[in-house]
Specification:
two-stranded antiparallel ribbon; 2 domains; binds magnesium ion; 35% helix; homodimer; Cytochrome Bc1 Complex, Chain D, domain 2; mainly alpha; binds heme C; binds calcium ion
Amino acid sequence: LTLSVQASRIDQEPIKVIEPATGLNTAMVELGKNLWFDPRLSKSNAISCNSCHNLATGGVDNLPSSIGHQWTIGPINSPTVLNAEYNFVQFWNGRAKDLKAQASGPIDNPKEMAFTHQLAVETVASIPAYQTMFTKAFGSKDISIDKVAQAIAEFEKTLRTPNANFDLWLKGDDKALTAKQKAGYQLFKDIGCIACHSGPAVGGQMYQKMGLVKPYKTNNPDTGRAAITNNPSDKHFFKVPTLRNVELTYPYFHDGAIWSLQEAVEIMADVQLGRTLSKDESAKIVAFLQSLTGEQPKVTLPSLPPSTYKTPQPKL
Amino acid sequence: LTLSVQASRIDQEPIKVIEPATGLNTAMVELGKNLWFDPRLSKSNAISCNSCHNLATGGVDNLPSSIGHQWTIGPINSPTVLNAEYNFVQFWNGRAKDLKAQASGPIDNPKEMAFTHQLAVETVASIPAYQTMFTKAFGSKDISIDKVAQAIAEFEKTLRTPNANFDLWLKGDDKALTAKQKAGYQLFKDIGCIACHSGPAVGGQMYQKMGLVKPYKTNNPDTGRAAITNNPSDKHFFKVPTLRNVELTYPYFHDGAIWSLQEAVEIMADVQLGRTLSKDESAKIVAFLQSLTGEQPKVTLPSLPPSTYKTPQPKL
Ligand code: HEC
Ligand code: HEC
Ligand code: HEC
Ligand code: HEC
Ligand SMILES: [Ca+2]
Ligand SMILES: [Ca+2]
Ligand SMILES: [Ca+2]
Ligand SMILES: [Mg+2]
């Protein structure tokens, strides 16, 4: 019985299990981890990838929008890097096709790390221990921004969160979810959330309009996908975000305006589905969403190799 | 023979071995580690202890002076927290008597974390998982700024760096140092550096005048110890810093003006001892100082518990 329940849930439920990553290049992962935490990829030497995607806080910064170089407040909420490999494209508006294409962007974004790719490469190349790490990862100590991005992406692929209670239930453990969580999941499917939020990441598979049946009120001027396609009908289309670990990734939506998960759920029901949820209904869905919090990656801080006299100095 | 060499070096050398910390309250260490990495102890929710004392970079930020709330540039270089427990007092001017007395200072320093102690305590108290951690560490879920400081201090006590090559040599392994390093250590003792830099931390045991025999030229207006004692004869007296891991803690001196360790050594010889070192001599001392880099603490990032509706929201 258990086996057939298991097989049927895994096959038939629209949400899929997250498994730990396998088959990665471990030398490249180690290099990528160093680069992920290295603030010397920023002009100030004070901002690393981890500043805005803190692996101690669900891969986000828990701010409405991020703080970049010289305390510049960014235009949009920082999405989680946990399970980001599952996204069909990267960024809210999908302008990067994958993790590697994304990873060099923040380095020379003047509102984020505010560096140049050339200075970032010079920085890394000036440090002998990095040359050794590049040689182990790529077979050559030649360093390029492309390899920097590839190594960071390889590290990001390790950032999965397996063994959420929901996944244990998918694999056949009936007791892994409470009755309230099961009821919340049923509601999530019945009222249509699942149409947009499905797959292993419970999202990340398509663009959808924010405010499908009713406009979403926001002060954020971002037009979403339309900024890329220049097609007015793409206005306010965003990549549907993952709901994995969503209890950790507040505040919610691209404008980071909503702090309460229950409120975010009620807004979704309203603007995407034209439906007013009772407090009891939204609380059940929240309970289900909390079952999507998985094991957070166990990341030991690297000991970054010191700079040399050749390393460009920080500019605050 | 080895045994007696060992015994005599350990007894007779003025620099002492660093051993890993023992006898700590492990529940308090774990709580302290969470607090150490928690940016919610700052007004912006973007700055943690680790922002300025990055455990990936020798317990410092490698900036001339730190970046605090709203990109405020601080007045003085951030010292390492590695082995800081050995300091006879904390801060450059010794205004805190120990790690616990120090730890609540940055939280309500307007140039650093810019929070208030009351809001910091409210923040921590609003998070159920912290209440559990406090109960494990202190036997009660009552939270105070004093306990916050005590827990952070307990974590900081774990931040020792044992097994530097110099320590292996002290323990009797003749091959742990190169001939150049041994010559550098001999010079360090012969010319008088050891008078101020000794003990397990190779410093941290006394105040001394910066510019003892010749003024040190700096744009930094800090008067050191005199700001605390109001005694003009204490002008430019600073706590002698540790030289453990000094190859990682550039830039050097309280003003963070000197990026090169060799230059820092030559300046010390000049302004503290009235002595001009040859390049060969300063290079030997640098080689010795590099033997003081120990094993960096292996710190796994905590998974910080999420905020609740009671948690004060960030103010950027
Ligand atoms: C100053 C803040 C900041 C820094 C630093 C930063 N990011 Fe981001 N990151 C963001 C924001 C904001 C977005 C969303 C931007 C958008 O979608 O237009 C984002 C998006 C992403 C995404 C896409 C996730 C998704 O679901 O679409 C990934 C992956 C990512 N960042 C990785 C990185 C890496 C790797 C680095 C370092 C090289 C980095 N980030 C540095 C703020 C930052
Ligand atoms: C038609 C597509 C669609 C439907 C249906 C839908 N969503 Fe969404 N969901 C989105 C999009 C697009 C976003 C991102 C919107 C934004 O940030 O502007 C989103 C965002 C969210 C967020 C915030 C995630 C974050 O990290 O910011 C939550 C929570 C959420 N949805 C839950 C639900 C629930 C619960 C339902 C059903 C009541 C639902 N969604 C129905 C498309 C949909
Ligand atoms: C914005 C930067 C910044 C932040 C955040 C910060 N510090 Fe510091 N820290 C400094 C600077 C700068 C000094 C030196 C100040 C002085 O001596 O006057 C210092 C000094 C110290 C010292 C004394 C070391 C010595 O050798 O005297 C310790 C210990 C320490 N900090 C621990 C902490 C802890 C614990 C936190 C978090 C609760 C923290 N710091 C947050 C910048 C910072
Ligand atoms: C009379 C006391 C004294 C003597 C002798 C002395 N030092 Fe220092 N040393 C200090 C003090 C005080 C500082 C901190 C000065 C400051 O930052 O303004 C310091 C700082 C340093 C630093 C920078 C550490 C850091 O993290 O910023 C180095 C390196 C150093 N000393 C090495 C040496 C060497 C090598 C010698 C011998 C050539 C030496 N010192 C002799 C008192 C002394
Ligand atoms: Ca970005
Ligand atoms: Ca968010
Ligand atoms: Ca320094
Ligand atoms: Mg301080």
